[in-house]
Amino acid sequence: MPTGGVNAPVPVAPDATPAVDPRLIVRQEGVKGYLGEFRGRMSSGELGSLPVVLALIVIWAVFGSLNSTFLSAQNLSDLSQQIVGTGMIAIGVVFVLLLGEIDLSVGSVSGLCAAVFAVLDVSDGVNQWVALITAIAGGAIVGAIHGVFFAKVGAPAFVVTLAGNLGWNGLMLQILGATGTVNLSGKDIVSRLYSTIYGQQIAAYGTAVVGVALFLLASLVDARRRRTAGVPFRPVADIVLRTVLLAITAFLVAYTLNQYKGLPLALLVFLIFIVVLDFVLRRTSYGRQVFALGGNIEGARRAGINVAWIRISVFTICSTMAAIGGLFLAAQIQSASQTSGGGNLLMNAIAAAVIGGTSLFGGRGKTWSALLGALVIGSIQSGMNIQGLSNAIQFMITGAVLLAAVVVDSLARRTRRAAGRA
């Protein structure tokens, strides 16, 4: 009879081969290994950002061939500013989609918060910083209300935010009053954030250098931390290659911006939000809980995650980002009106998140999806405006691109499930 008990070590055959992390084999095989890994990821549905990057290349190639104005430094610089408002809202939508939920109120919330700022700053003469903080805080409170009804009361997020879409739009109309439109002064903090462009070339190039340096430093620190913990880590060659690719992209963007006026402050603020919230999602326990909840809610609950708190916080983040996006959109047109937050803004924000690569089924996505998706939608609109095409054509093509993104996401999810990775 065995005497070792349940905790006795399992005997290992003398000729047994220790397990080897497949990622280490890939790196040892060099280029051949990476190509094999890439094919394996594609065949198993791990597409990442590849589809949207390819779509963006095709869109730019098509519109660039039709009219050289599209790829001009001026148009690309204008595009980088125009996508900021919708992109900010899309960042918040990414958080909600990671839970496998949807927020249909982001358009109305953005218009409401823009109206709050405009009325306080222009009509009531409140200090502009107080008006700004009040508008953003208002967005956070709205999101918390949505989250409480969803997480505590148990009402479906779809219904809660649909009701919010109507209710907050009505409140916006009430705040704007009989005139229905409040024009910004152009000298307020929001307008300056949107319109300021740093004309010195060192601004764009310096930002590129700082961004690349921070990426390199973060990668090296992460590799060292993982090495110390005894888990697989990226070798220096991998980190250097990724840094070089990022540097090429960053300096091309900086060069293009400097060919026109320089670095738009709005774009810089947008990128800062993306990087900071990407860190929150990928490098903090809170971010891991968001992904866990979106991947398997029952498993997350059994693991001790406070499901209600995560849900409330995610909807709060979403509405806060909607408020910030609404302020940038108001600065873009220099007013808050009865049409603020309306039109196709809601659909564009959701489409940007989905087209950028965030899954509608939850558990997969990143804040960079907002940038990529907003670029796709903004590029389509810009290209069609240059070609003089109607809004009807723009809506149909944007809808087709959104449908294609959802189909790709669904097929990839089915492939991952078949490969045992879903």
Could you characterize the architecture of this molecule?
This protein has 422 residues and is an all-alpha fold. It has a single domain (50-199, 261-407), classed as ABC transporter involved in vitamin B12 uptake, BtuC (Orthogonal Bundle), CATH 1.10.3470. It is built from 17 helices and four strands. It has a two-stranded antiparallel ribbon. Helix 6 (128-153) packs antiparallel against helix 7 (157-176). 37% of the residues are buried. It is found in: Cell membrane. The chain crosses the membrane at residues 47-67, 79-99, 129-150, 157-177, 197-218, 239-257, 263-281, 308-333, 345-361, 368-386, 392-412. Keywords: Cell inner membrane, Cell membrane, Membrane, Sugar transport, Transmembrane, Transmembrane helix, Transport.
Q: What portion of residues is helical?
A: over 70%
What is the strand tally?
4
N to C succession of SSEs: HHHHHHHEHEHHEHHHHEHHH
- Spatial gap, N to C terminus: 43 Å
- By CATH, the architecture is named Orthogonal Bundle
The strand order across the widest sheet is 1-4
Beta content comes to under 5%
Largest sheet: 2 strands, antiparallel
Strand-pairing-aware structural class: mainly alpha
* CATH C-level label: Mainly Alpha
